[in-house]
Amino acid sequence: MYSTAAALALDADLVRSVVAERLAWEAASLPRDAAAERIGWHWSDLDRMGREGRITTGRGGRYLIADLDRLAEEADGEPYITAQAAASDVLEIRASDWKYVEAAGWVTPAATYERRVGRSRTVTVALYRLGDVRALRDLPGVDWEAARGLPKSAASPLREYAKFAPTRAAVARAFAQGLADRHGVRVWAWNSPYSGLLGELDWERIEDASLRRPCAGSWPPIRRPVPTPPRSCCAPRGARSPARPGTCSSRAVRPSWTPRPPTCSAARSRSP
Q: What are the contacts of 196-201 at 24+ separation with CB within 8 A?
């Protein structure tokens, strides 16, 4: 609330000029949602353009209409889209085939953001520049028509272009199998919510002192698991459940050769 005396003391011409200025701005601008609808962009793209100084923003979070119309013509390929929209709306392929496009190195994300999933988890969502996705349609030697309209179970012709890096699970399994083969013991591996890295490893305890642990310097140190691993385990290839009940429901990696003592100097020094 303002006092009547203070209101009467205001300069009438100043008030008229301020009101006229605000009315003129409202007539020449649009709020966020209306501005995004006018040019068919997502509001986050307008926000990014405003931070970059490529569109005039003003009072009330509004955008200048003249800049909006200019952006619609000059920056047609600037909006960011998700992988779902890039695959379905632009390339007209299955969303599941987008992984082959990215694995082939044809396009890289322009930005990412964290989207909340549930109460405590977030997932990273990649965003791609619309112009970069449109340019994929002109790639030489790629038959996009053959990749369109495929049923869910059909193999994608885009697989031949993809070069996938090994997954974290594959690396963990390979390390566990190598450890089992090298030392002739069974190795258990599982995903642990307590480590956050490659999960947890444990191995079979045997009587021969020379085989109780890997030779020093031949493998990186392995952290012992927590006392009670989770029930959902990452099971490397193998055939038997762990000997200790209640520790993990995964199967152990068994050595692919007949167990023999290691040949490192530490093992030879213990031999009779």
A: 198/168, 198/171, 198/172, 199/172, 199/234, 200/225, 200/226, 200/229, 201/172, 201/175, 201/176, 201/225
Confidence label for 193 from pLDDT (cuts 50, 70 and 90):
low
**What pLDDT digit, counting tens, does each position of 52-80 carry?**
888 899 888 899 999 998 888 888 888 89
Amino acid in the structure at residue 5: A
Helix, strand, or coil here: 39? Answer: helix
> Which tens digits make up the pLDDT trace of 168-190?
777 778 888 888 888 788 887 77
Name the residue with tokens 């290839």. 237
Which is it for the CA torsion 73, 77, 78, 81, positive or negative?
A: positive
Cα–Cα nearest to 42, from 71, 7, 64, 13: 71
198: left (phi over 0), alpha (psi -120 to 50) or beta: alpha
Q: How many CB atoms lie within 10 A of CB 130?
A: 22
Give Cα separations from 75 to 34, 82, 112, 238 (angstroms).
18, 18, 20, 55
Q: CB of 191 within 8 A of CB of 176?
A: no
Q: Is the dihedral of CA 217, 220, 223, 229 positive or negative?
A: negative
Per the document, the length of the chain is 272
Picking from 171, 201, 172, the residue whose alpha carbon sits closest to that of residue 185 is: 201
Structural tokens at position 15: 């008030």
Burial class of residue 190 in the structure, from the number of CB atoms within 10 Å of its CB (0-12 exposed, 13-18 middle, 19+ buried): buried
Residue with tokens 């390979």: 174
200 and 189 Cβ atoms separated by less than 8 Å: yes
Residue 189's alpha-carbon distances to 2, 210, 222, 223, 244, in angstroms, are: 71, 22, 11, 12, 14
